[in-house]
Amino acid sequence: MLEIQNLTSGYAGMPVLKNLSLTVETGSIVVVLGANGAGKTTLMNTISGLVRPMSGHLLMEGRPLAGLAAEDVVAAGISHVPQGRRVFPGLTVGENLIVAVTAATKRAPGGFDQALEEVYELFPRLKERRNQLGWSLSGGEQQMLAVGRAIVARPKLILLDEPSLGLAPLIFQSMFDAIAELNRRDGTTFLVVEQNAEQALRIGHRAYVMELGELVAEGSTAEIARDPAIEKAYLGA
Amino acid sequence: MTMVLDVSGVTKRFGGLTALSDVSFSLDRGKILGLVGPNGSGKSTMLNVLSGVYAPELGSVTLNGAAITGMAPNQITRAGLARTFQNLQLFGGLTIGQNVMVGRNCRMSSSLLGTIFGFSSARREEDEARETARTYLDFVGLADRFDDETSSLSYGERRLLEVARALAASPEVLMLDEPCAGLSQGEADDLADSIRQVAAQGISVIVIEHNMRFIMQLVDRIVALNFGQKIAEGTPQEIRANEDVIAAYLGRRHA
Amino acid sequence: MDTFIQVLLAGTTIGCIYALVALGFTLTIAAAGVVNFAYAEWVTYGGFFGVMLVGLGWPLWLALIGAVVFSVGVGYVFQRVVFRPLEGKHFLTTVTATIGVSVSMAALAVLIWGPYPLTLPTFFGSGIISLGGVSLFPHNLLIIAITAVLIGVLHLGLTRTTIGYRLQATAQDPDAARLMGIRVRRMRTLAYLFSAGLAGLAGFLVAPLFIVTTTMGFSLMLKGLAATIVGGWGSLKGAVFGGLIIGIIEALGAAYISSEYKDVIAFLIVIVVLLAMPRGLFPERIAEKL
Amino acid sequence: MTGRTSDTANNRIRLAGLALALATAALLPFVLGSNYHLGVAHQVLIFIILASGYDLLLGFTGLLSFGHIGLFAIGAYTSAILVTSTGAPFMVGLIGAAVLTGVVGVVISIPALRIKGHSLTLLTLALGEVIRVVIRSMEWLTNGSHGIAGIPRPEILGFSFRQPLPLYYLLLVIALLTIAFAWKLKRSRYGRAFNAIRDSEIAADVCGVNISRMKMLAFGLSAVIAGIAGSLYAHTVRFISPEFFSLGLTVILLAMVLIGGRGTIIGPILGAILFISLPEALRFVKEYYLVAFGITIWLSVLLLPEGLAGLPRRLRRWMPRRNAKEAGL
Amino acid sequence: EDINLGMVIATTGPFAGGEASLIHGTRMAIEEINAAGGINGDNLVLVIEDTGSEQTGAINAFNRIVSIEPVAIMNTTISGFVMSQMGMIEDEGIPTFTGGASPQLAADAKGTEALFRVRTSDILVAKAAARFATENLGLEKIAVLRLNNEYGNGWIRMIEEQLAEDGKTPVAVESFESVDRDVTAQILRIKNAGTEAIIVAGDPPNHLVIVQQIRQLGFEGAVIVSNSGVLPSTLSAYAPGAAEGIYGTVDSLPVADPAHAEWVERYRSAYDMDPDFAAAEYYDGVKMLAEAIAKVGTDRAALVAELRGIDGHKGVGTTYSYANGGDGGTSVAIVQVENGGLKLVTSVD
Ligand SMILES: Nc1ncnc2c1ncn2[C@@H]1O[C@H](COP(=O)(O)OP(=O)(O)OP(=O)(O)O)[C@@H](O)[C@H]1O
Ligand SMILES: Nc1ncnc2c1ncn2[C@@H]1O[C@H](COP(=O)(O)OP(=O)(O)OP(=O)(O)O)[C@@H](O)[C@H]1O
Ligand SMILES: [Mg+2]
Ligand SMILES: [Mg+2]
């Protein structure tokens, strides 16, 4: 689905990602691991068009993404849940979800109503807080809303940047279960950046490990989880 | 064992929503208390009540036996309670060192005239504040960034700067809201060590965190909230085994 | 009683003008956080465009359309050279730039249209309708009607569609808005152009009452600013009510208390309103979550 | 260690710059001897004082006030009335102006503690206009819209500053004192507290900064300075009337500080110099000078969004990149 | 050798329109003088500086002009600006002509010896307006609607003084701000007071608005507007017919004086527009100055002394007196708008 070849990207002329290549197969869940500052967020932002690549190719279903504005990337079927949640503070939970509606949502069976139901089922807390303004939500509630907005959009590919941040353990588990479920049922593809490697590797199919803007390891999640170096660095002793 | 902080019967409502209802607990000198609970259970709200940002509808908070409910945040800080924020609140226009020195402000007393005309007492106090700031920046590992802009810090470093700023107020109680968010497990372990050192100096700590590994290894006691109510209190072992906490918060896997 | 109705009518007319101005002024705030001090000149130029086109022999209605179109053009130029380069900067930075441009525009207006006060005819000549002891001025009624229609259209547009939410989302977090697929730049351009069009319309409509001078826009913009804040920063509904309230208070104050102190009265009422409702009638709903 | 040495190098550059600026200011009258140039310089100095004080609110504390010209007016009228109708010496007028505006500033700050953000701007705008209209209406005291004429030039301990040259030095000294005050303040715990309030009021509060007291102090201090500037204005121009202290002047004052760079010491100075002297310097383009002036403002904002004070930082940011590029090649 | 004549006037900003004709009047005089061989062979050269319609601009422009050492200065008509230059005029002792009509500018009020008014003081004009209403029109109930500034306040003071002579007071006194564009409330208050004549004092845009609203609100009595309400540029901007029948004050009207009428013809052919009377008065100012220079040379003190001696000098604009506390122009005329033009009703000298 997503094909990244020799991507170099960064800020103000200084590259963060160096010549990075990565593939996301249709219908798979791909996990990206890496230390703080490795460039994971930069990778996600480059895919979604918030950061302009300096060189290299980004192909979504064979069509180039590089140079597209963020809003056009969304139209191509990619939803990005950014690090730091970024819910709209002055809109209610419901309005935040309405704003995230895309053409794909409307076309899908059941349309927006169905999609909304799904989000509320996954995060009942959001349903309770339906009419509450974004800013006043607790940190975890905001995180749920951010993920909910991506689900409502019904994209082909969802980019999740540290979705577990600030989530309580139970919610966190049910979210990962839901990701697996969405993937199985609708065939939605996921690219997930996560500090909590253990959980991510549990649901993922493939994993990449980044260090200082470059890939240092890749393989099936099972292989990666077994790799002693990885285990030491990301899973904790 | 002396009790430093006593929270009794605190209730806080937002419109029709009761974010905290009748919550009580206490904290002893030099102890570390964990505050856990599902998202939206009222943990941050509790911190906001303790630090004076929100006034509770009911209940009282005493610090060393003196009531602090209804006091302005700056008075509470002067009384000995300092905190960090879940959503970072740094002073972006100040350097890293100055951020920490603002934290020291509540322990400074020189007059306006004294600082403008450079009275020796005022200068001494300013030097002392700078030294204190350096000490605490050193403590969180940011000493060499004293004159840098805050914007040059990574997310994790910013959290540490907030800790240094809170410590500069020489608090009796330090309150941390999700200090590990965005940190890797290794960094979280380092932070836990630092917090233990703080506690060893006799400062009591309240910490909110969803990182169970961090919490369980660090704290002396845990208070668990759900829907604004206290559902359990005890040692980490007791909490880990508590059925209510498992059902509401931890899930089976963590138990 | 006649006097009261007559004064109320005059206050409502002026209030509608303030509301119209405040609406355009607020639109850029609501959509992009842009406080546009050159709005004064946008309004002034609307009047001047009208005078110029009528001077060229265009019929009045065509001149009205022309003035609005020209104003939209001015808005487009602004979007390219003033607003876009400063996207994402602090709102005071844009304020400074617009102050600069407005100084230039005001000076340029004198060079183009000369220093003398100019006027436009109304659609209805100088005829009046007498209703009992009250005189109705057709042009004033037109202003009230147009304001009402515009407010209605905007209200429907913003509440019956999701555009209103998208506009708010754009203003609150442009990057996140783009991640939702919202065409941020298009939204903003739309807001700028609409705002400029409103300015041109206001400038044209008030020209027969206000006399087109290079300073005519400044006081109107200040009233728009006041209306925006009294109504609630960035709230379109607030801008309308704020404008109406200020206009009516001024008129009633002048009629029943003192014309010398009418501005003080209006300002004192503003102060009282702010003390009672520090964030305006329709407050911006955002605060900080800690 | 290298950091230390480059710091001292920086300080040395800064000291040299300061010395140069002082020398220029002291010798300026001998370069531009005419009364016209001195007259412009008088205005520049008065506005440096006013803008520096305004920046304590706007730049230091993040409070956008539109009523500052009202305080300036109160200062001017207090001094003018004291001196012309009671025959008090200039110093009494000056101090009276400072004290009264200080008190008014603190009183204004009381509602300002409750009201934040844009509403504060409107509140202060309303207060400023009320001040102006009240001055205009109190004919028995202020001579109403006719203004007060015949205000004498300053005289201190028998020494007259009637001539433009001595007056220049008097204004220069007071401007330097104001700047030194702002500079000291910025580096003190008070300055830090002001900045903290600007950046995050709630965090400042939680850090132990007494928000109410600090806001009152900021309003009071900037009002005192406005009062001093007002007094100096009255005694320099020798005529004041309510019309001068209009909202347009407020906008100019705001633009001055913003163009210069808010929250910096040098910003208001550069802003005042630019705003007063540039239109004069542009007189050669005749009736186009205002057009040119506005375009200059716009361009400078485009190039230096943080204000003229941001120029050195901009240059520094451009330099290493160019170096890096050269090194890369 | 050339003699510099300075001029401090608004060429930009809101006052530029009102002051443009003064430059023409001044220029006309200079051209005539130079064409006739100059003053003792020296040509007059006009140097203009712009006030930008602002007080600080007026101060700077004045200082700038002073630095070229002009023989005299033709100054702005905005009284407030002149007041703010007063200290400098006094310091320099430079002969300065102004069209400012404010009573404050009189040498025996707050003005200075070196300042010469080339117009009729508002003391005379405003009183003439009031007297016209009471004596000529025989009306009892006079109301005043005035701009809330130095100008408007000067008018109300003088009108009250004049009415007091007959033991009267205005039945209503209302004010407006210069940016106000709706005076319904004020007019209704005036109307409800049973007013028979309204005297309006304001700037040109104010008159355009007020005259129209007075009629729309059905006030049937007499309307007397201050000078700026009947300037040629204002007259042409009234809505068709709106100003018909209103009275206005002018210092002088050409039809009353053949010399003035002849001058107007020359002005028209030179600038292709109608002059207002103040242009003629600035013309007179330059002429009086030239005569004085021819007599006593360019020494400032001598010039001031010479000009202060003028008594009953008849110019094209009006008759001037500076001797014995004389305060410039002495004539006032009341005119009426008829078919869009002005008709002399009465004149006071
Ligand atoms: N806006 C920016 N401008 C300049 N440099 C940036 C910017 N954002 C990030 N960087 C730098 O790019 C590098 C990679 O940052 P990135 O945010 O991609 O890391 P990450 O892997 O997502 O880390 P984390 O786990 O902390 O989220 C870091 O060195 C960071 O300092
Ligand atoms: N200012 C506010 N206005 C309205 N509701 C609020 C406000 N602050 C918090 N709430 C609500 O109160 C509840 C408690 O919020 P709080 O932030 O204390 O949760 P929390 O326990 O810290 O959660 P998390 O772990 O997600 O940070 C939440 O449901 C939140 O939506
Ligand atoms: Mg990241
Ligand atoms: Mg929380």
UniProtKB/TrEMBL annotation, chain A:
GO MF: ATP binding; ATP hydrolysis activity; branched-chain amino acid transmembrane transporter activity
Pfam hit, one: ABC_tran
Coiled coil (residue ranges): none
Gene Ontology biological-process annotations: L-amino acid transport
Keyword set includes Nucleotide-binding: yes
Domain (ABC transporter): residue spans on this chain: 2-237
PROSITE patterns: ABC_TRANSPORTER_1, ABC_TRANSPORTER_2
Keywords, alphabetical: Amino-acid transport, ATP-binding, Nucleotide-binding, Transport
Domain of life: Bacteria
InterPro entries with a match to the protein in the record: AAA+_ATPase, ABC_transporter-like_ATP-bd, ABC_transporter-like_CS, BCAA_Transport_ATP-bd_LivF, P-loop_NTPase
Family listed: Belongs to the ABC transporter superfamily.
PANTHER family the record matches: HIGH-AFFINITY BRANCHED-CHAIN AMINO ACID TRANSPORT ATP-BINDING PROTEIN LIVF (PTHR43820)
Protein name as annotated: ABC transporter ATP-binding protein
Organism encoding this protein: Microbaculum marinisediminis
Automatic annotation (TrEMBL), chain B:
One CC-aspect GO term: plasma membrane
CDD domains the UniProt entry points to: ABC_Mj1267_LivG_branched
Xref: PROSITE patterns: ABC_TRANSPORTER_1, ABC_TRANSPORTER_2
GO biological process, one term: L-alanine transport
Residue ranges occupied by any ABC transporter domain in the UniProt entry: 5-252
Keywords for the protein's UniProt record, in alphabetical order: ATP-binding, Nucleotide-binding, Transport
Superkingdom of the source species: Bacteria
MF GO annotations: ATP binding; ATP hydrolysis activity; L-isoleucine transmembrane transporter activity; L-phenylalanine transmembrane transporter activity; L-valine transmembrane transporter activity
Family matches, as InterPro entries: AAA+_ATPase, ABC_AA/LPS_Transport, ABC_transporter-like_ATP-bd, ABC_transporter-like_CS, BCA_ABC_TP_C, P-loop_NTPase
Gene3D superfamilies associated with the record: P-loop containing nucleotide triphosphate hydrolases (3.40.50.300)
Family per similarity comment: Belongs to the ABC transporter superfamily.
Protein name: ABC transporter ATP-binding protein
Organism: Microbaculum marinisediminis
TrEMBL record, chain C:
Keywords: Amino-acid transport, Cell membrane, Membrane, Transmembrane, Transmembrane helix, Transport
Protein origin, superkingdom: Bacteria
InterPro entries: ABC_transp_permease, BCAA_transport_permease
Cell membrane among keywords: yes
Any one Gene Ontology molecular-function term assigned to this protein's record: transmembrane transporter activity
Membrane topology annotation: Multi-pass membrane protein
Transmembrane region(s): 7-40, 60-78, 90-116, 136-158, 190-210, 240-258, 264-282
Membrane recorded as keyword: yes
A cellular component annotation (GO) from this entry: plasma membrane
CDD domains: TM_PBP1_LivH_like (cd06582)
GO biological process, one term: amino acid transport
Subcellular compartments: Cell membrane
Family according to the record: Belongs to the binding-protein-dependent transport system permease family. LivHM subfamily.
UniProt-recorded name of the protein: Branched-chain amino acid ABC transporter permease
From TrEMBL, chain D:
Subcellular location: Cell membrane
Protein name per its UniProtKB record: Branched-chain amino acid ABC transporter permease
Alphabetical UniProt keywords: Cell membrane, Membrane, Transmembrane, Transmembrane helix
UniProt key word Cell membrane: yes
Species name: Microbaculum marinisediminis
Record GO terms (molecular function): branched-chain amino acid transmembrane transporter activity
Gene Ontology CC entries for this record: plasma membrane
A Pfam cross-reference name: BPD_transp_2
Membrane topology designation: Multi-pass membrane protein
Superkingdom assignment: Bacteria
Transmembrane segment boundaries: 12-32, 64-84, 90-113, 167-185, 216-233, 265-282, 288-311
InterPro entries per the UniProt record, alphabetical: ABC_transp_permease (IPR001851), LivM-like (IPR043428)
